[in-house]
Amino acid sequence: MTAVPQIRLNDGRTIPQLGFGVFQIPPRDTADAVRRALEIGYRHIDTAQMYGNEKEVGEAVRASGLDRSEVFVTSKLNNNGHRPGDARRAFDGTLQALDLGYVDLFLIHWPLPTVEGTDYVETWRTMIEFAKDGRAGSIGVSNFQVPHLQRAIAETGVVPAINQIEVHPYFTNEEVRAYDRENGIVTEAWSPIAQGAVLDDEVVQRIASSLDRTPAQVVLRWHLQRGDVVFPKSVTTARIQENFELFDFELDADAMSDLSHLNRGEKGRTGPNPDEFDYVPR
Ligand code: NDP
Fold first, then answer.
1. Does residue 2 surpass a pLDDT of 70?
2. Where in the sequence is the domain holding 173, given as residue range(s)?
């Protein structure tokens, strides 16, 4: 089986660099998709309270016959759970839904800097409790911009292990990635193929055909060579398999550079800008 590289986190733990994302997989299809991913060899699943499918992720991991320690599971605190009491209750809910004893990584999903009555630093302080008592192996954040990271670190002294942010060739997000790198934070790249939007790009297509690989494989390989963690989502078995076959070829410096030059800056985002995103489920 392909050996997926392990990346070391600033808390001494490790995370498989390639995983499987389950955003937008309906709960009724999630256990089956995760089962297929685990059969293919994925050992890292990325879910969230917001996705509504933690329970089904847990079911598939438990049914897989794999030892708990062999599968890395991430979940994320929903946007209505930022206040300390809410965060504690929501985290209990995640542990109960997954039913795996502990979660390997727990993230603040969005910083919500404009939402009144919440403060991501206070939320981060509560997350630190979850790591201390061992119910979260590692803790981190998602969609944090540089000023959010600076404040959280300065006011608590605890550096997140991970920052999960939007990154793909149309939005290379270099400033946040550089801050992460300089501060020992591992970057996870969400929507690594921009939900498919980058696959028809002629540069991507040219590199893929020159290497006899698919566009998705080329883009995912670009992420891995940049050192980021990725977890493409698919419900299609052939694609789940294809997205796992990334370790028997390499992109040369020209291909890496051509892909990075597809960056469109802010215009290239597929998702919301974290400085403005204020969605809070009621
Ligand atoms: P991706 O960039 O992973 O793209 C998924 C889409 O691409 C699906 O429509 C899928 O179709 C299609 N696809 C997958 N593989 C291939 C392939 N080989 N060839 C052609 N098409 C393909 O998007 P996501 O937004 O799902 O991002 C991945 C993960 O990142 C999420 O599942 C989630 O875990 C995380 N995420 C985190 C966010 C955050 O705020 N922290 C925000 C967004 C995502 P199909 O399924 O039909 O095969």
1. no
2. 14-193
